Amino acid sequence: MRHSLLAAHDVGTNGDKCVICDERGVVLGSSYYQYAVDYPKPSWAEQRPELWWRAICSTTKSLLKKLRISGNEISALSFSAQMAGMLPVDKNGRPLRACMIWLDGRSVDEADWILRRIDRNHIYDTSGCVLTAKDVLPKILWLKRHESRVYSRAHKFLDVKDFIEFLLTGEYVTDYSCASYTSLFDIRRRVWSEEIAACIDLSTDKLSMPVPSTEVVGEISTGASKEIGIAAGTPVVAGGGDDMLASIGAGAVDVGECHLCLGTSGWVGVNLDHVVLDPSMRYVTLCHVIPSQWMIYAGMDCAGASLNWFEKALGSPEVDAPTARNQPYRVLDSLASSVGPGSEGLLFLPYLIGERSPIMNTRTRGAFIGLSTRHTKAHLVRAILEGVALNLAWIVESIEESGVPVRPLRAIGGGSISDIWLQIIANATNLVVSRVTKPREAGTIGAAIVAAVGVKVLKDFQQTKRFVHIEKDFRPEPSQVRLYQNLLPLFRAAYQNLVDVLSDLYKMS
Predict the structure, then answer these.
(1) Residue 2, pLDDT score
(2) Fewest CB atoms within 10 A around its CB: which of 161, 183, 241, 374?
C-alpha cells in the first residue's frame, strides 16, 4: 500500500523546484526548471509571472511521469516562494505588468517619501520590517507615481505565491509569513495595518486575504488540473515564504532553534515565541509558518549571488570546463583552499545590490579592499567566501546584542554543499554549523511538511524531526576563530569608512 503523497514547490529567484515525498519524510524525487530575472535598468529586477506557471506545470508533470505516479495519488500541494514581490493584476487576475521581485530597489525616492510621512520606528514596531526601497509598500507607491494607468487598473497587488495559488484555486490569499514581509502587516494581530496602508492612500481590499500557512485555501480547479497534472479537487495548502519554509526544511522547529541559508541570498533565522525587535533595526521579525511563532530574519542579498557574479563578470574557465559544469562549488572550493585564511590581506564587501542585514542600506555597493599584485583569482574566490562569512558573523553579533542567543546553525541551500565555506562560517561566527541532508531541497521539504500538517497527514511540526537529519557538523577551530575575530572589526570599519563613497558611486550607476 502506497503512503500518502505530497507535492511541493520552491518558487525561487532563479527557478522552481518540485519534490514529491510521503508522510514518512522519504523524498521520492525532484525536478527543476530554471528561468531568468530581467534587469531592464540599474536597480530594477523583474520576472514575468508566466515563467513561474510554466515552471510549476513542467516540473510537476515531468516528476509525476518520472516516478510513474498518477496525479490522483497526490494528497495535497503547497508552496515555498520568494517574498516581497509586487505584481498588479486586473479583475480577472491577469497580470498588468511584470512582477517587481525582492531584488528590485528602484523605489528609493518612494521609501524616503513614506518615511517623511510615517515614522520608521512605528513601521518597525508594527510590521517588524525596516522599510527599504525593496519592500512592497514603496513598490506600490512607485507604480502609482510612474505607471498610473496600470495602478488605476489594478484589482489586487499579489506576491509570487499569491498569484500561483490564484491560478490553481481562483482565490486571492496569502499566508501570514509572506504578508509580514510587506511592511503593511501587523505581526502581533496578524492583520493588514490600515494605518500604514493609509500613508499612501492604499485600500487593504487590494491585498490578498491573510491566512495561516497550514490552511487549505482551495482546491485545484479543472482548468488548472489539465495544466499541472494533479487531479482537480486536490487541496492546496497556503504554504509560506522561503525563509520560514527553509526553517522547517532544516528541522529547526522549536523555539530558539536557528538555521542558516546559503542560496542566491543568505540569512540567519531564529525561532521565537514572542516578538523581539532590535532597537538598532538591524534585522526584521516576521510571522513564522508555525502557529504562535515568529522568526528573526537577518538576511543578506548577495551570498551565492556574489559567487555567481564572480563567474559571470570575471570569467572562470575552471568552472566552465565540461568536467566541472555539474560541480562548480567543488572547483571554487579547490581555488579557495589554495589560499590561507584572511586571503593575504584581501577583504570583500558582499553588497553588490545593497544590503539588508545588518546595515539596511539600499544605496551601498560592494568592494574588494586591499588588492595587490600578489592576489590571484583564488584569492578573490576565498575573499568572497570570507566576506559573506564575516557579514554573517556581524549579523549573529547583532542578534545576540538584542538579547537573543544564537545556537548552532542548521545549514541549507546550494552554497551549503561547500565544505570550505561552511568551515569558514563556523570559524567566523564561532558556532557549530550543521549541514542537513538534502540541503538544496529544504524549501520544498518544508512546504511538503506544511501541506502534510494542513491536511492532517502529520499531527504537528514536531514530527518534522523524522524528515530532517544532520549530514555533517563543522566545528569552530580556535586558531581560525581568533583570526576572524580580528578581521571582523576591519570588515565593519571598511564599510563604515566607505559608506559615503559607495553611496555616491551608487548614484552614478
Answers:
(1) 55
(2) 374
Which residues in 145-208 belong to E strands, given as ranges? 156-158, 173-175, 185-186, 191-192
Q: What is the pLDDT of residue 467?
A: 76
* pLDDT 10s digits, 81-112: 999 999 999 999 999 999 999 999 999 999 99
- What are the structural domain ranges in the chain? 1-82+215-509
Q: Which grid cell is 369?
A: 579592499
Contact 432/405 with Cβ under 8 angstroms? no
C-beta of residue 181 within 8 angstroms of C-beta of residue 146? no
Tell me whether residue 113 is exposed, middle or buried, using C-beta atoms within 10 angstroms of its C-beta: 0 to 12, 13 to 18, 19 or more: middle
CA dist 98 and 45 (Å) reads 10
**Three-class SS string for 242-271?**
HHHHHHHHCCCCCCCCEEEEECCCEEEEEE
C-alpha to C-alpha distance for 181 and 24, rounded to whole angstroms? 32
DSSP string, 388-405: HHHHHHHHHHHHHHTT--
Which portions of the chain are predicted below pLDDT 50? 1, 320-326
**pLDDT at residue 311 in the model:** 86
- Distance (Å, rounded) from C-alpha 3 to C-alpha 420? 38
What does the pLDDT look like over 295-317, one tens digit per residue? 999 999 999 999 999 988 876 55
**Residue partners of 48: CB distance under 8 A and separation at least 6:** 38, 98, 99
Greatest distance between any 2 Cα atoms in the chain: 66
Query: What phi and psi values does residue 479 have, to the nearest 5 degrees?
Result: -65, -35
pLDDT on residue 3: 63
Looking at residue 417, what DSSP letter applies? G
pLDDT of residue 322: 40
pLDDT value for 315 = 67
Question: Is 1-82+215-509 a domain of CATH 3.30.420.10?
Answer: no
Residue 507: exposure state from Cβ atoms within 10 A (0-12, 13-18, ≥19): exposed
Task: State residue 328's pLDDT score.
Answer: 56
Residue with the three cell numbers 486586473:
90
Q: How far apart are CA 332 and CA 325, in angstroms?
A: 11
How far, in Å, are 408, 422, 436, 481 from residue 432 at the CA level?
5, 9, 13, 12
